[in-house]
Amino acid sequence: MTALFALATSILYGLADFGGGVLSRRTPALTVVVLSQIAATVVLGAVVVATGAWSEAGPLLWFAVAAGVAGPVAMICFYSALARGPMGVVSPLASLAVLVPFGVGLAAYGERPGPVQYAGGVIALTGVVLASGPVRGAPVERRTLVLTLGAAAGFGAVFAFIAEASTTVTGLFLALFVQRAVNVAVGGALLYASVRRGGAALPEGGWDTIRAAAPGLVFVGLADVAANGTYAIAAQHGPVTLAAVLSSLYPVITALAARGVLREKLRAVQAAGAALALAGTVLLASG
Question: Are residues 90 and 255 in contact, defined by beta-carbon separation less than 8 angstroms?
Fold first, then answer.
């Protein structure tokens, strides 16, 4: 179950990252974050009401609040980096987020993966980097690199916090709702501050562009929140170290989406990387 839900996390995150990166090329990253998270909050609010999840409220929700603070900052950094630099470089570097929950699993829970799992993790992460595209020849500004590493740290914190925010399925619904509500509040505050400093809140086409992008914004918000949910389930039902590494394979999905939608050519090294990522996944799941 851990492997299944962790791999689902990678698929959902990969698609959400691709969608967010594409949208951020026409719409300010802050606006993409806020609008996509509003969509997710509305849907989750309906789920919370329908399931009676309010009864699960308790001290663990503070972890959801912490995830809600870290999430929008990480997403803004990531979407901005995707808009500024090559997707094939930004995406694999952001997968360094795995180091945060992996370290939590080792330090806090005393997990000790076996040699096969360690080997699988190294192979899978190597495959992620290769599958996302060769770094050589792709110009990356220092600001883009800083934004990407900041996003990685934030995403890793979200992984760690959301895994601790609930112990039941209905509690997870409530935790995700609280996280998203905080996302909207923090992201909205950052957007307001940006506008006060002269930043743009709307793209060149104004509200017409926003309306045209609405389906994509809703998809990004729902895919992102679903990924948080599947990761929380994966981490609660198995080793956090295993869940963290398998959930970090999303750059492969981003690269494949770029190939299928944007017609970016998949080079031989990328195909080899995808194969390595798959082989590492098998080792992780069987170790």
Answer: no
In angstroms, rounded to a whole number, what is the distance separating the alpha carbons of residues 111 and 242?
10
Average pLDDT in the chain: 82
- Rounded to whole angstroms, the Cα distance separating 44 from 172 reads 10
Query: pLDDT of 157-185, one tens digit each?
Result: 988 898 888 888 889 999 999 999 999 99
Q: What angle do CA 274, 276, 277 make, to 5 degrees?
A: 65
Angle between helices 99-107 and 142-162 (to 10 degrees): 40
Give every CB contact of residue 139 below 8 A, 6+ residues apart in sequence. 85, 86
Cβ(12)–Cβ(70) under 8 Å?
no
Degrees (nearest 5) of the Cα angle 84, 140, 199?
Answer: 25
- pTM for the structure as a whole: 0.77
Tokens for 158?
A: 């979200």
Task: Identify the residue whose tokens are 């509003």.
Answer: 38
Determine the Cα–Cα distance for residues 192 and 46; give it in Å rounded to an integer. Answer: 27
- Could you tell me the two tokens for 238? 């198995």
State how far the Cα of 218 lies from the Cα of 40, in Å rounded to an integer. 7
Torsion angle of the four alpha carbons 97, 100, 102, 105, in this order, in degrees rounded to the nearest 10: -150
Tokens matching residue 198: 């002269």
Residue 140: phi, psi to the nearest 5? -130, 120
> CA-to-CA distance for 76 and 183, rounded, in angstroms?
11
